[in-house]
Backbone:
């Protein structure tokens, strides 16, 4: 890439090369772009053709960046209001000095009177180089309680934890030649014969740093697809094999594949003998999952199961991409364990064209956890849920999200008194189960700070001080794929302009930290901060990265043979046994089964047949659109014109039986809540399954309570229960709930509002007892 990252143009404008991250949201793909600015207005957005991964391609969100930056409703200065005015539009503009004069004494007073643990920092999908709510909590404020509020930490965290415990390595990704400047032409690269796309629609989600269109690049070069999904997706229509399974039965399907591969002795015998632990135990376990039984459980026919298993085992190299369906599943730890076991016993780990593994130390992410040294061991031990859920707290270093809601509602083990919302609008159906419960519980906090770009339902409902964030076009920073756990690229975010008085996450961390814990923030400014992180890793400072544009770390295959995964330098994997743990020593130590196993979803035709009579549809949630990132982008006229409303996909036969037509408003409800969405009829979904988008709210409607920009009306997370999680604390059933659907004549026919009380949670152990009475009956496909 050219060294000049900023060029002046003849018309008085200038163009800045940068990489995108968030806000406005996108996963950390580091999409390359060139931004042209004139008179402090963004007047041009183009893809950067020199970028080694995105190569000039941009999504519609990036192309609409100017509309986001210069939107008249955007908030670009600090504000305050009185606590008694929460939920009312009674904000007053203040300066940053005035904001700090409110915030800093309040934090000091709470820490003195109630302990630092009385403060909790909430974060979402992350910003720039890492998840900034960690250092904000640990190093700036000094609290051990940082919280990602999605029940069961059900986004990316479970997959990372599973990988860490089973492989002792960074997050696995398909090998799409991203590490090589010459990409697919690199002599060390081998094209995968197949990519198994499991519970993922990467073209829309660009998940965790993976550029979804790399799949198209690979398909053009001959890679074939195997798609595993409850829906027939765009990728599915172009796949050689599709396993359209019943939602939530993925683990059974994986165990069925393992059964075929092991019993037919199609596995890589050398890798199994030298690099795995517990193979004989796994072999015994998979005998419980013959293809004919798995077919009954999953709705995938027996012959497809056998055929796909043989392809995975014999068409080497094969790459696996496992998605959010793993995380949003109480049985997801076992699902991930089984998928990694498939990759391992077929010898597709860390080989060209297989799945890549990051080294044990996260690139540029280490400082995130190093900030924990600011906390005493006594304070660290007070993290909410840490003792109860050691598998989650060890891997994620946060509170347990479900325990955090319990603490807010009960005051046990101690009351929480202050919340800091780090650019997370989680009341809007993004990352909170039972958001109305969170809303009522959070209203009891004494003091709240919100960081964001726009006034959101979460900010209007809860904020006392509002701190304005810049977009990625308006500050310096670093974007890194997979949050440093498997870094394909590291890109420079170069400030192109600045609107108003916004300050980035790291600027806020630094300013607040210097006032409360100055020893943790010995940096002159943001560029100095990044330079000190980059120098040991890259040998360049921030200016050097800006000139470089994008850094691609070198990749070494078969690190396990070379002693590059273990701290002691010995060959093997960084696990207790030094091998890939097909039988997990840690899972067993934490009270779970050492081997993967299938467990029926907590609400399903099998586990709750009486409820299924009342709610006869299986609901999957979280559908992605190219026009929005979770709850962002709802303000933008161009993007709302493309996707104006939330969508519920259902089969035409199902719709006909319910008198539902295309584009009708539909009320979906279950025992936990209700939501309204537009019907989209498609034959690409099973007759018993419906699929919904998420994160919808209506900025064009009144913002004050009780409406809160219509946040409850189409909030799909109203239907997701609290604390229906796996044995180790991970996962939730948001992709395998049950519901019913009713046609509405008009959107206004039903008002979805916060109830006075909630239906009692049905305890998972009660459901298990009910399911046991059924003698493992299964529901057949239509």
Residues:
């Amino acid at each position: 890439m050219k060294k000049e990252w900023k060029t002046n143009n003849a018309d008085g404008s200038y163009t800045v090369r940068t990489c995108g991250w968030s806000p406005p949201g996108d996963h950390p793909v580091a999409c390359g772009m060139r931004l042209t600015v004139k008179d402090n207005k963004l007047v041009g957005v183009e893809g950067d053709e020199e970028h080694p991964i995105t190569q000039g391609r941009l999504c519609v969100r990036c192309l609409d960046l100017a509309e986001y930056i210069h939107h008249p409703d955007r908030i670009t200065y600090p504000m305050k209001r009185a606590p008694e005015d929460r939920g009312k539009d009674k904000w007053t503009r203040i300066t940053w000095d005035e904001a700090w004069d409110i915030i800093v004494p309040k934090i000091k007073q709470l820490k003195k009177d109630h302990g630092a643990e009385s403060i909790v920092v909430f974060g979402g999908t992350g910003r720039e180089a890492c998840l900034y709510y960690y250092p904000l909590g640990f190093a700036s404020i000094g609290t051990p309680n940082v919280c990602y509020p999605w029940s069961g930490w059900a986004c990316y965290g479970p997959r990372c934890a599973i990988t860490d415990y089973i492989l002792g390595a960074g997050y696995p990704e398909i090998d799409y030649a991203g590490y090589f400047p010459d990409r697919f032409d690199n002599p060390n690269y081998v094209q995968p014969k197949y990519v198994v796309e499991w519970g993922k629609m990467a073209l829309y989600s660009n998940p965790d740093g993976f550029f979804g269109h790399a799949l198209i690049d690979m398909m053009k070069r001959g890679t074939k697809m195997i798609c595993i999904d409850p829906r027939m997706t765009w990728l599915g229509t172009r796949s050689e094999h599709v396993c359209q399974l019943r939602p939530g039965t993925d683990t059974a399907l994986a165990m069925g594949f393992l059964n075929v591969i092991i019993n037919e002795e199609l596995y890589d015998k050398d890798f199994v003998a030298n690099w795995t632990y517990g193979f004989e135990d796994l072999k015994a376990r998979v005998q419980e999952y013959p293809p004919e039984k798995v077919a009954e459980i999953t709705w995938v026919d027996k012959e497809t199961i056998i055929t796909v298993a043989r392809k995975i085992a014999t068409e080497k190299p094969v790459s696996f991409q496992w998605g959010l369906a793993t995380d949003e599943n109480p049985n997801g730890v076992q699902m991930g364990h089984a998928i990694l076991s498939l990759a391992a016993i077929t010898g597709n780990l860390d080989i060209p064209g297989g799945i890549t593994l990051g080294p044990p130390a996260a690139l540029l992410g280490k400082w995130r956890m190093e900030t924990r040294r600011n906390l005493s061991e006594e304070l660290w031990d007070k993290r909410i849920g840490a003792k109860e859920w050691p598998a989650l707290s060890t891997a994620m270093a946060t509170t347990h999200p479900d325990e955090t809601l319990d603490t807010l509602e009960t005051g046990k083990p101690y009351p929480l008194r202050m919340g800091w919302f780090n650019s997370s609008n989680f009341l809007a159906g993004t990352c909170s189960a039972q958001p109305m419960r969170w809303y009522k519980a959070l209203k009891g906090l004494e003091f709240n700070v919100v960081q964001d770009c726009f006034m959101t339902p979460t900010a209007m409902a809860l904020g006392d001080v509002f701190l304005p964030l810049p977009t990625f076009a308006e500050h310096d920073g670093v974007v890194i794929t997979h949050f440093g756990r498997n870094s394909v690229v590291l890109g420079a975010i170069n400030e192109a302009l600045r609107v108003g008085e916004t300050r980035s996450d790291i600027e806020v961390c630094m300013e607040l930290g210097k006032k409360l814990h100055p020893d943790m923030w010995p940096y002159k400014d943001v560029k100095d901060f990044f330079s000190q992180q980059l120098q040991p890793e890259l040998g360049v400072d921030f200016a050097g990265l800006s000139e470089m544009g994008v850094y691609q770390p070198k990749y070494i295959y078969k690190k396990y043979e070379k002693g590059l995964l273990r701290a002691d330098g010995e060959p093997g994997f960084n696990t207790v046994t030094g091998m890939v743990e097909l039988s997990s020593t840690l899972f067993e130590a934490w009270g779970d089964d050492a081997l993967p196993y299938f467990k029926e979803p907590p609400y399903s035709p099998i586990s709750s047949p009486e409820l299924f009579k009342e709610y006869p549809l299986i609901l999957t949630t979280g559908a992605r659109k190219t026009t929005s990132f979770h709850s962002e982008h709802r303000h933008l006229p161009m993007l709302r014109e493309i996707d104006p409303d939330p969508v519920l996909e259902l089969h035409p036969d199902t719709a006909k039986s319910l008198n539902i037509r295309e584009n009708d408003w539909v009320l979906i409800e279950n025992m936990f809540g209700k939501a309204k969405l537009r019907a989209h009829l498609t034959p690409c979904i099973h007759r018993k399954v419906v699929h919904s988008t998420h994160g919808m709210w209506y900025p064009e409607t009144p913002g004050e309570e009780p409406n809160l920009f219509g946040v409850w009306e189409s909030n799909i997370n109203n239907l997701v229960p609290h604390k229906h999680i796996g044995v180790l604390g991970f996962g939730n059933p948001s992709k395998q709930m049950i519901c019913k659907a009713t046609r509405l004549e008009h959107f206004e026919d039903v008002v979805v509002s916060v109830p006075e009380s909630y239906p009692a949670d049905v305890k998972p152990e009660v459901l298990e007892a009910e399911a046991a009475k059924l003698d493992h009956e299964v529901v057949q496909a239509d």
The first strand starts at residue 6 and ends at 8. Residues 536 and 567 are 18 Å apart (CA to CA). Confidence is low (pLDDT under 50) at residues 762-782.
